[in-house]
Amino acid sequence: MSALNQLSATDIGRRIRAGDTTPSAVMQAHLARIAAREPQVGAFQTLDADRAMERARAADALPVNGTPLGPLHGVPFVIKDIIDTDDMLTSWGSEIYANRQPERNAACVQTFLDAGAIPIGKTVTTEFAYFKPGKTANPHNLAHTPGGSSSGSAAAVADFMAPLAFGSQTAASLIRPAAYCGVTAFKPTTGGFDLTGVMGLSTSLDTLGVLARSVTDLILARAVLLGQSLPPLADFDETLPRINLMRGPHWQDGSIEMRDTCTRAMAALAATGADTGEIATPPSFADLTQAQITVMGYEAARARISEYTAGGATISPQFRALIQVGQRVSQQAYDQALALRKRANQMLDVLFADCDVLLVPSAPGAAPKGLQATGDPLFSRMWNLLQLPCVALPFGTDADGLPLGIQLIGRRGDDARLLDVAAWVQDQLHRA
Length: 432
Known about the structure:
Layout: H1 9-18, H2 23-41, E1 44-47, H3 49-61, E2 76-80, H4 107-114, E3 118-123, H5 151-158, E4 164-169, H6 175-181, E5 184-187, E6 207-212, H7 215-225, E7 242-245, H8 256-270, E8 275-278, H9 288-303, H10 305-310, H11 317-327, H12 331-346, H13 348-351, E9 357-361, H14 381-385, E10 390-397, E11 403-409, H15 415-431
Parallel strand pairs: 2-3, 2-4, 7-8, 7-9
Antiparallel strand pairs: 1-3, 4-6, 5-6, 5-10, 9-11, 10-11
C-alpha cells in the first residue's frame, strides 16, 4: 500500500470518506515528507505546518458532527505565491511585496476551502511570474531547474509534498515545469477559471491552472473550481480517441530525446488501435511564437508599470527587460499580433476536423542543468496565444533519469473532452 502522501487527491478523498484514514493522518504524512525534503528542494515560500495540522484535526471531527463532506474534504493542496490568501503573505516572488498580506482569498483558494481542501502553504514563483527564478530545485536532480514560473508548485507535487497545486500560465508556466518535474498539468481555455485574486501579467494570456500527478485529479479539481459534480470518465471501449501528431514550427529546436518521446508516444497510442495520424503545421503558425512575445510584452508593460517605475534595484534584469521591450511595442504591432491570432484561430476547425486532440512537444527536452534560469517556453507560447486548453503528461526519462513528456492540445472550449482523452492517454502510456 502506498504511503498517504503518495496517493492521488482522488484516492485520498475516497479513503477519508470511507473512514479508512483521516485528514490529520493524511496531513501528517505530507508534512513529514516536507520536513525531510524541503531543505533540499525549496518548494515553499510560506509554510505553516501547525496551522495545516490544526485545520486537518478540525476536519477529522466534521463527519462525527454530521457535516456533509465536500468533494475535497481533507485533501491537502498548495498555492502559487501570486495567488492571494487571507492568512499567508502573497509576495508575487518580489522583494517589493515581501510583506504583502491580502485581505481575502483568491476565488480559486476560497472555492477549494469551501470544498474541504486544506492548504499547506504558498509555493515559490519566479518574480512576477516571469523569468527570474526562486530557490526551488528539481526534485529529480537538485542541480537542475524545476522550470517556471510555477516552480514550487510543480516541485511540491512531483516530490509527494502535496497531491494538488495551483499554478498559472502566461507563456509556459504550467506546462514546462510539469514536463521538467514529471507531473501532469492542466491549462484551461483562457478564461476558463476565475482569476480574481491572481496577480496579472498579461490580460489576454494569463490563465489559472492546476498541477497533479494524475489526470483524474485534474478532472476533479476542474469540477470543484467550476462548481460541477464530478463527471464520469469517458468510455473509450468502443470508439477510441482520434489523436494527431503536430510537430510544429520549432520541432528541430527541441532535443532528439524530445522528438523521440513524441514519436514513441504516438506509436504506443497507435498500437492500441486508436485513430492516429500526423498533421502538417500551417505556414502562418511559424509567426505565432513571436506574436505571443509581442502581446505579452505589450500587455505586461502596461499591467506592471508601477513595479517597473518604483522597484529600482529590487527589479531583476529579466523583468526590467520585459517591460522595456514591451514599452517599445507599438499599438500597430500589437494589433497585428492580435490579428494573426484571430486568423490562426479561424484555421483551428481544419486542424481539429479529424481528431480530438493534437499531440505536440511540451518542452525542448529534459530540465536544463542549473538554477539560474527556468528553461525555454518555446513549445507552449503559440498555444497560449491561441488560448487553447492544454494538458502536460509525463512519458519516459532521458539518459540521466530526468523526466520527459508530451503535451495534448484541445479545441477551444472543449476542455472536458481534452481531459477525458488525456486520462485515457495517460493510462495507455503507463502500460507502454
